[in-house]
Amino acid sequence: MKKKILFVVTSHDKKGNTNEKTGYYLGEVSHPWEVLVEAGYEIDFVSPKGGNPPVDGFDLNDPVNKMFWEDKHYHQKITNSLKPSEVKPQDYVAIFYAGGHGAMWDLPNNTELTNIASKIYEQNGIVSAVCHGPAGLLNIKLSNGKYLIAGKKVNGFSNEEEELVKLTQIVPFLLENQMKDRGGVYEKSAPWQNHVTVDGRLITGQNPQSAKAVGEAIKKALAN
Fold first, then answer.
1. Whole-angstrom Cα distance, residue 177 to residue 159?
2. Would you give the end-to-end CA distance of the chain in angstroms?
3. Distance CA 185, CA 154 (A)
4. 167: number of CA atoms within 13 Å, CB side?
5. Could you tell me if 24 and 204 are in contact, meaning their C-beta atoms sit under 8 angstroms apart?
6. pTM score, two decimals?
7. Strand order in the sheet with 42-46
8. Is the predicted pLDDT of residue 224 greater than 90, yes or no?
């Protein structure tokens, strides 16, 4: 049996009260997927509602996106994502939260998902996320009652990056601010630079440009 990693994607498809579509960001799934599948892991997908999650950043000129989207096995898996109630945390060595703006709306307060992540972490697994995916980490509490990210080095989509995409007034909160409020030791690079933060078994990446490097960091952490 291959060891398994759980990828979390959003079910949310609208940017606030705008009519702009959102969802999970394809490159933030495909780039870590490529690294981890090549390393011999099997990936499962879960979303708050299960089924076929909305996709954003749908660029098939990116060869890795194209390879992922045209992989019959994985296309079937992501378009039929698991519901949280169908997930057995003990089956996974790591959990990874992909970004896309949708993550800001439905991942932070999904208690089923935060419980799954907490269990994976406490069985010595890895918790990881990229871009807006760290929104899903904000409310993960460990059995000692403390927030997972409290006192740990973290990163995620920065306030400056949110300003550059002109969504500061649309998102329900600013991710950088919330990570700091939860006690995370937030760090960042200039916008759109690859930046991955590793603090023990917690791995976070700042933006879409960091997605592959988060996959590499997960692979390295699992090899130790």
1. 8
2. 20
3. 6
4. 24
5. no
6. 0.98
7. 42-46, 4-8, 92-97, 126-130, 202-205, 196-199
8. no
